[in-house]
Structures are given as C-alpha cells and as structure tokens.
Design goal:
Rossmann fold, globular, DHS-like_NAD/FAD-binding_dom, 3D-(3,5/4)-trihydroxycyclohexane-1,2-dione hydrolase activity, TPP_enz, EC 3.7.1.22
Length: 619
Amino acid sequence: MDSKTVRLTMAQALVRYLCAQKTRIDGETVPLFAGVFGIFGHGNVTCLAEALERVQDQLPTWRGQNEQSMALAAIGYAKSKKRRQIMIATSSVGPGATNMVTAAGVAHANRLPVLLISGDTYVNRLPDPVLQQVEHFGDPTLTVNDSFKAVTRYWDRIVHPAQIIQSLPQAIATMLDPADCGPAFIGLPQDTQELAYDYPEEFFEEKIWTIPRPRPSVDQVAEAVEILKSAKNPLIISGGGVRYSGAEEAVAAFAKKRGIPMAESIAGKGAVCHDHPVYVGAMGIEGSEAARKLSESADVIVAIGTRMQDFTTGSWTTFPKDAKFININAARFDSLKHRATPVVGDALECIIELDAALGAWTAPAARMVQAQAWYKEWNELLDEGQAPTNQAVPSYAQVIAVVNKVARPDDVLITAAGGLPGETIKNWRCKSPHTFDCEFGFSCMGYEIAGAWGHAMAMGGKGTPIVMLGDGSYMMMNSDIHSSVIAGHKMIVVVCDNGGFGVINRLQTGMGGAGFNNLLKDSRVLDPTNVRHVDFVKHAEAMGAYARQCDSLADLEAAMEWAQTTDATTVICINSDAYTWTPGGADWYVGVPEVSPRASVNEARKGQEEFRKKQRHGV
C-alpha cells in the first residue's frame, strides 16, 4: 500500500472522515458531529455499524425507538446548539429510511442541519429484488431514498467508494451555510459500503469548520437606511435567524437605541426575555394584540432572519398594503419576499452595519410609548386568563402559567403542533434568552418528546427540557420517553389531555363545520358508552419514567416542584379544557367551501371573503 493512502471500506472511510471534522464554539474546538442516532437493520448494520462500533468514544451512537423520532431528536439538538453542532441519524433500507422523510421535512422547513445516512439497495442489482425494495418497472435506478430529494438541501447516493471524497465536504458546507442550511442526505448502497479503496490520508486530516458571516452589500444597506429614516411607525420582526446568528443582544440593543418596537416570529421567540423594554410579543396568528396593532399601523417593517410564514404575517393581512419592508436575511430567497428591500447577509453583521449607517436617527418617541402601553394591556389580558378559577377543568393558559412559574431560568420549553403552540407563544414568559422551542415551521406532531431528547443531550444538565404536549401528540409519538430513560437524559413532560385533537376541532367548528373525527367524543366507535381513555401515568411508568396525575392546578404546581427533584424523565398529566383559548392575534387564510347546505359554513365563507380583502400581494 502506498504510504500516502490508507485502505478502508467506504463505510469505514465515511465514519473516519466524520470523526475528523471539528468546529469552534465560544473559542473551544469540539467535534462538528456530536453523535449518531441509529436503528440498525439490513443496509446499515454489517458495514456502517461495524465502522461506528470502533469509534464509540469519539462518535457515540445512541439507540432510538423510531427512525423519525431519532431524526427529530437530532433536530432538537441542532436547535439547542444554534446550528453549530450536528447530529447524524442512520437507518436501514426501506421503511427505516422513509420513516425519516417526515423529520427531513421538519429540518428543511426550519432551515436546520442534520445528516441523514440511509442504507440503499445494491448498485450491481444482482440480488434484486431485495427485502424492502420498492421496484419501479420503468426506472430501476429509483429507490425509496429518492423521496428525500424533496425535503433535503443536499442529496447524494454513493455508487463508488471514491465519491465520498467530493460529496462529504459539500454536504457539510451546505449544512453550515446560513443561506442554504438544511438537512443533507447520503444514501449508501449495501455493496458500495463493503468495498475497500485506497483513500488519500490527507482526506482524514482534522478540519475545523467555521460558520460564515456574509456581510451585506453597501448599496443594500444604504437603500435600507433611506427607507428606515422615512419611517414614522417602524416595527422590527425578529426571526429564528437572529438566534442562530447570535444576534439577539445586538438586535435588542438596536431596537432600544433607535426606539423601534420589537416583535418576534414563532421561531424567533426567546431572543429576549418577556419583560424586555422593547419587546411587544409574538407576531401574527398566535401573536399578541400589541404586536398586531403595531403591525397594522406600521409604515416600515424590518424583518430580520424570518421567512415570513403565514402564521407570522396573518396570511399577509396584518400590514398596511402600502407598508414598506426591509428584509434582512442570509438567504436571498427570503430577502426578496413581498416587494421588500433586500439586505442579504448575516443578521449580526447586517444590524451592525445598518446601525453604523443610520447616524443619529431614531423613530418618533411616541411610537415606543404607544407600543409599551399596548404591551401592558396585553400582559394584563394574559394575567386575567391565567388566573385560577373554580372551573372543573383548567384551560391551557392556566396550566402554562403554573408550569412557567415553577420552571427555572435555564429550563427550555418545548412544544410543537396542536393547541399548545399558540397558547405557549402567547402565555409562556421567557425568563432567559434561548429557552423556548416551538416546532411550527413544519408543525410536526410528535416532535415534542423526541426534540426534547436532543435538547437534553445538548444542554448537558444545564437546565431541564420541559415538554408541553396534548394527548393527541403524545399518542402519535412517545417512545423516546423510554429512550431518554435508558440513555440518562432527563426531561419533564406535561401531558394536557383535552380528549382528542382540540385545536383542529376549534378550526373545524370555527369555520362553521360540525365537530367531526377530532375529539374522541366525535369519533366513530362501536360502543359510544364504553370509550376507554388512556391512563398516561401507567403508560409512562411502563416505559421507566416517573409519573403523576394531577386533578387541579394546585396538584400541578406540587407535581412540577417534585419533577424538578427527580433523577430521570418525569411525566405529569392533567385534564385540560378543549374549548377555552387565549384571545388575540391575527386571522388566518383557510379554505372554506364556497357553497354548503350548512348556514354556519356559508357565514364563515363570508367572513373569509371579507378577511381576504386585507391581503397584501407579493407582486
């Protein structure tokens, strides 16, 4: 063998390369890839697992219960690390791979890095069709792994051992690029994994990656400055990109210095604490009344690091049609939305340069005075809705208030699809920055517990992930309670049982429809008199967790205080009201039948038609 090469199988070389990749976090050099989530089967057990077993001290492998939830845990880890470290999720051929497609969609929609490595069928096709192979009669090259193309930023299938020399650096560069960030997928055909190749030794040299901070065009900054200087009623919308850039303090300081109220997108929530003097709450459909009033009266909106999803924009109805947008974003695609003046670059660099170019300009003082008055009114409304009452079943807002009260400053609240995103976005009061994670970019039921497992790994015992989810999400994906127990990563899980899919029932009935197939009481069963509800306490205990049922808000507070003292994942269950929701926020564009025999549907259609007249158009 040549002294400048080393003979390895493709799988061995891939693992060795991944181990050699480093990154710097707060001045410390750490592995870029912090670990692997793996369920082994044919396609990744005989070759890839053989390589991973050798490097457990460098690249630990964690065993999950479901391929989708493993990849969701990797996403939670990436969020907690602000995209600076990456986890890997690997699966076998067939259903193991397709289980990860949903998680890839979550990472893609939320612009988050995760490396997905899946087994694949044989390049030589000699044993075809193999177990779990899906055959396409007109295209023998097509496998289930092609389904990842729609939900990944980088996709490759390795059909020769030498290809990883070019492919792996490109996959990593994509995942670390602020403008192009998202999941990368590498397909590994079984016969390619086993092949040995003489790899150049320099391929395995340690490499320290840094996340680029692209600076904006001078011309774009100048144009943005002229627009902002003309503003009488400006508004900042701080998005997830602000947090990933590490620009939270800079943006908040800019807002305070310039006298501009600061709202947040859902992904951006947690950049500042709830009581920050410039903060006015979240924007949009699940936002605060203060943010809604400020957006409806805004003449210039500075959107920083947000893709302006419909839940942020109220389906583009919450802004005056003649309002001007300045979109600061690392991604050119996002910066150009809705006729905005683009400022393409890293959020921190852009804010620094925009601030330097603004000179002594500040917004009219009355704007911030009005913002703080509206925000005070909003907090008074929250206080009223969170106050205990003598109703038999507490509302989400009341439950959230108790959990929030007991949460420590370093604890991280994690939630996802269902009713709790809107209720926590409104009611959860962040005590420290970067302590809130609501997966609402893809609105993926089942993210909550899996994502919290990833957060727990990343947090390393500094604070505890607190999961809030409904009974619907719990039933959809809960097995990582067991994963967290056996792995030793504690979380606190609060299950709010409202008897089914409460928030989608709200939408269904709110648009004039009958309650149908959402709440358990409205679902088809053979014997309606004998619907047996899940005992979530026994279920959680069966997976090795501590658990407790609560019958009141006082019980809940005591249970939360107890949960803070336990040494493993702890599940707390409480019944909650399916019909009481925190008011406020913008309206939403939804499809409502143009004609219906139901009068309530026709009435809802009229309301949608009136609402849509307020929409801005993106041309």
